[in-house]
Design brief:
With 232 residues, this protein is an alpha+beta fold. The chain has three helices and 13 strands; from the N terminus they run E-E-E-E-E-E-H-E-E-E-E-E-E-E-H-H. Helix content is 20%, strand content 31%. Keywords: Metal-binding, Zinc, Zinc-finger.
């Protein structure tokens, strides 16, 4: 077990919004997570905040678990998974929030799983001309990029500043390209200058090339969605 995963214990907690499986230590929380929002107090919400229907004994009010606002059942009827808040089951969300959560589902169901499964690359640190074959993966708590070979690195996700995907096959007139590597720049706490690492896909086996390309595509998705998915 790597150092960054030594405190991955989780606990089941109940909030007004539902059951959540959260890390025991706040410092072990995923950088892709969201805090539960405060609910708009019932007394401040006499009408649906979407359609303006007045609440009464028949028309009950419901709180969206993602934004915390008050809605009638018609405007807040969807129950959608919300992994960014660690909910165990799908939770009630307004139409706008449900759409956002559904779009994020692919990120959680596909990209994060690909990154956590890992892939093999030749890794070149800084300006060195020596590369090392390493298995690269996202840690179970999603906080670190873990690199294992003869050497070992743990790069905190929130410290990554830029991700440049390297491709081949591009022609001036257009054409198919495939990801063959990436250049990663990140900050080490306490240091002013950025550090850099270059990742090059292994050409040993065709299956490795395909796995590496999928991993790089997932990493590109994370970098493109940085403002959405990461708490920077």
């Amino acid at each position: 077990m790597s150092g960054c995963e030594a405190r991955d214990a989780k606990k089941l907690v109940r909030s007004p919004s539902g059951l959540r499986m959260v890390p025991e230590l706040r410092s072990a929380r995923s950088p892709f997570g969201l805090d539960e929002p405060p609910w708009v107090p019932d007394k401040e919400c006499p009408r649906c905040m979407q359609c303006d229907t007045k609440f009464d004994f028949i028309t009950r009010k419901h709180h969206c678990r993602r934004c915390g606002k008050c809605f009638c059942d018609k405007c807040c009827s969807k129950k959608v998974p919300l992994p960014r808040m660690c909910f165990v089951d799908p939770v009630r969300q307004c139409a706008e929030c449900a759409l956002i959560s559904q779009k994020e589902a692919e990120f959680y169901d596909k990209q994060l799983k690909v990154l956590m499964n890992g892939a093999t690359f030749f890794v070149t640190p800084g300006t060195s001309d020596k590369s090392e074959l390493m298995v690269c993966r996202l840690s179970n708590n999603q906080r670190y990029l873990v690199l294992d070979g003869d050497s070992h690195y743990e790069i905190e996700i929130i410290q990554i500043s830029t991700v440049q995907i390297l491709t081949e096959g591009f022609t001036p007139g257009g054409g198919n390209t495939r990801a063959i590597g990436m250049i990663l720049q990140y900050k080490v706490p306490g240091a002013e200058e950025l550090k850099q690492m270059k990742f090059t896909a292994s050409e040993d086996f065709s299956c490795n090339k395909k796995l590496s390309a999928s991993w790089l595509a997932a990493m590109h998705k994370v970098s493109k969605g940085g403002k959405t998915y990461r708490r920077l």
